[in-house]
Amino acid sequence: MKILKGAEVSAKIKEQVTQMMEGLEGPAPKLAIVRVGEKPDDMSYERGAVKKMENFGLRVQTYVFPEQISDSDFKAEFSAINRDPDVSGILLLRPLPKQIAETDIEKMIDPEKDLDGISPANIAKVFAGDKTGFAPCTAEAVIEVLKANEIDITGKNVTIVGRSMVVGRPLSMLMLKENATVTICHTRTRDLETECRRAEILVAAAGKAKMLDGRHVGQDAIVIDVGINVDENGKLCGDVDFPSIEPLASMATPVPGGVGAVTTAVLAKHLVLAGRRQRGN
Ligand code: NDP
User: Fold this and answer.
1) What is this model's ipTM?
2) From atom 47 of ligand 1, which residue's Cα is the shortest distance away?
3) For position 6, what pLDDT does the model report?
4) pLDDT of residue 66
5) Which one GO biological process term can you cite for this protein (predicted)?
6) 239 Cα–ligand 1 center, Å
7) CB of 170 closer than 8 Å to CB of 123
């Protein structure tokens, strides 16, 4: 089984980003990471994103607000960041605390700065197959992993486990755009094993440690594991039980070291695209 390493895909995206930055006048585009509270998951994602931006030669600033911030105070702060001409793109760490109306923020964010595809305008573009919008970075990262490894998606049976607005749903639309035949599974799917086993490309995005194993993987399938979970020993793991799929799958992404590393690279690519558009390139 070939291991599809995220670092190799990320290196290819870095080359693209470097090329895209050539001829871009003025300071490097700046990412604003907006975090409310101190959730370990948010902080770990933030560290990864900061490191990646710096590694790609991009600017990044983190804006941290207290967990108890009121809805109106947060909206005022967010609005200022949204309007700041020095900020080319925004990454909002979610979910936000309950007192903040997240859907209002999704509507507020400037679609041109909405690098993670949360605004209605960008969601509509992803669903319409219009590539001028920003798709959620993780969903796009799955496509990047396949393309960087020269895996043809056209006509393939693709099964995606998970239907969230962050991964499963937008990814199903990106897969359709690539001419795959797509099946989306969720907790009400009647026969998950059969749906998964007939996939030529199986994407796990359920957020359940090691829930997919050898019973779910067909011979020579390509397995992309989006899940980030903690196992019974406190170690990071995906949704796929790696050892049990090894005799079956032809290729698979590891966790850690797979899709996660590519997600932040896609974020960097979106930032440069946003910066170029805002400067009229
Ligand atoms: P959500 O919890 O929002 O969605 C999970 C989806 O999986 C739901 O649609 C749910 O179905 C489905 N699901 C859960 N359990 C089962 C099951 N037993 N059988 C079938 N379907 C199931 O999670 P996210 O989409 O936000 O994230 C998914 C995973 O991806 C998480 O582990 C998360 O940490 C990771 N992630 C990784 C990123 C990266 O950069 N690599 C970025 C974002 C997320 P239903 O709709 O019926 O409830």
Assistant:
1) 0.98
2) 187
3) 98
4) 98
5) methionine biosynthetic process
6) 9
7) yes
